[in-house]
Specification:
Elements (H helix, E strand, L loop, with lengths): L12 E5 L3 H12 L3 E6 L10 E3 L7 E3 L10 H11 L4 E3 L4 E5 L3 E4 L6 E3 L4 H8 L4 E3 L3 E6 L5 E5 L4 E5 L1 E4 L3 H10 L3 H11 L2 E11 L9 E3 L5 E6 L11 E7 L1 H6 L5 H16 L8 E11 L7 E4 L4 E4 L8 H17 L8
Parallel strand pairs: 1-2, 1-13, 2-9, 6-15, 13-20
Antiparallel strand pairs: 3-4, 5-8, 6-7, 10-11, 11-12, 14-17, 14-18, 15-16, 16-17, 19-20
Length: 349
């Protein structure tokens, strides 16, 4: 079923479900190749896990609630960001980053160049999306092929979008399975069920310290049964906050086991764990809670992308390439290279 060679005519029009980084990379590269693309995004704007949550008044800023930083190991990824987002939209996040060793205590994280969006992580995806056709606030509910083999997409309001040569799906696997199952594509949905079981949840708490904390570090990875990550979001470049906003990510197994916990209880338990591992006792003023149901894949060895040539349906996303921001780019770029090598789209220079 997977990965057979395709002898059908070239792809000229593509629908992309989801406008996270993977969807935006696919759309940008296809557009450059002369392929007409339309992105359908259920949220108010693009970004996916490169998301930033607007902070309550009087703050005029935002906090990165999804991906906290990203690496650039693939030089093509850097070239893409500079070309499509612009060099001013991202920069290095410098500081003291530590992890807690179960026996040796707090240790410095390995040296690495850690990048963030400026002034927020979503600045990158917003910039990439500017010249793309993104239909925000549109949740696709069903896919169907017509008698000519072209795809139709129907949204939850009943509106139909027609005559696409191919469809690229970029949401998390559970949402992809739901859409495929609702579209009568049960065989494809069944292929993904194992992958869905490998995705883990993440509770996130954002907390404000109006007087700052005096912390000597910017981020910690505790050896905690509740907390996986804490970071001073206000220490990232381009943030101009009053006081400090900190982001707390719940430990994946704990988040999985407590997905239905009331938000107030999540807030109190993660704040208590934060105080215990950081030593910060400064009073906080405000806090926000967000739940990611499908935040990270358990498995790290994945196929990169999936291309069902008989139906001209593709899947791309970070969950297919290790779960990191750079993985989203690598997944999308791999799909484009695949379509190019099979002669389905023109080669992109």
């Amino acid at each position: 079923m997977l990965d057979s060679q395709n002898s059908l005519p070239a792809i000229r029009r593509v629908a992309i479900v989801g406008s996270g980084l993977a969807g935006l990379v696919v759309a940008s590269r296809l557009r450059e190749a002369g392929v007409d693309t339309t992105l359908f995004e259920k949220s108010r704007g693009p970004g996916g896990r490169m998301a930033a949550k607007r902070l309550p008044e009087p703050s005029d800023g935002s906090a990165d609630i999804g991906a906290q930083y990203f690496t650039i190991r693939n030089p093509d990824f850097r070239q893409f960001l500079e070309r499509y987002a612009g060099p001013s939209t991202f920069g290095l996040w410098r500081g003291v980053f530590r992890y807690e060793h179960p026996e040796q205590g707090w240790q410095d994280m390995h040296a690495a160049e850690r990048y963030v969006g400026i002034p927020r992580m979503s600045a990158i995806t917003r910039a990439i999306s500017q010249d793309l056709d993104v239909r925000s606030g549109v949740r696709i509910a069903r896919l169907k092929r017509d008698s000519n083999g072209l795809w139709q997409l129907r949204d939850t309001d009943g509106k139909v979008y027609e005559r696409f040569d191919a469809v690229v799906m970029t949401p998390p696997p559970a949402q992809t399975v739901e859409l495929l199952s609702g579209s009568g594509l049960s065989e494809l949905a069944g292929d993904l069920n194992i992958r869905v079981s490998r995705m883990q949840a993440c509770w996130t708490v954002v907390v404000h310290f109006p007087e700052g904390t005096g912390a000597s570090f910017q981020a910690l990875m505790p050896a905690s049964g509740k907390l996986h990550w804490i970071a001073n979001n206000s220490s990232k470049p381009g943030r101009d906050d009053e006081g400090e906003w900190w982001v707390l990510h719940g430990e994946p197994d704990w988040s999985d086991a407590h997905t239905d916990m009331p938000q107030e209880q999540v807030r109190e338990e993660l704040l208590e764990a934060f105080r215990a591992c950081s030593g910060i006792t400064t009073p906080h003023r405000e806090s926000l809670v967000h739940r990611w149901l499908y935040a990270r894949p358990r498995a790290r060895t994945t196929p990169g992308h999936l291309w069902f040539s008989d139906s001209r349906l593709a899947l791309a996303g970070d969950w297919l390439e290790g779960g990191r921001v750079e993985g989203a780019y690598n997944s999308a770029a791999g799909l484009i290279n695949r379509l190019t090598s099979e002669g389905l789209i023109p080669e992109v220079q």
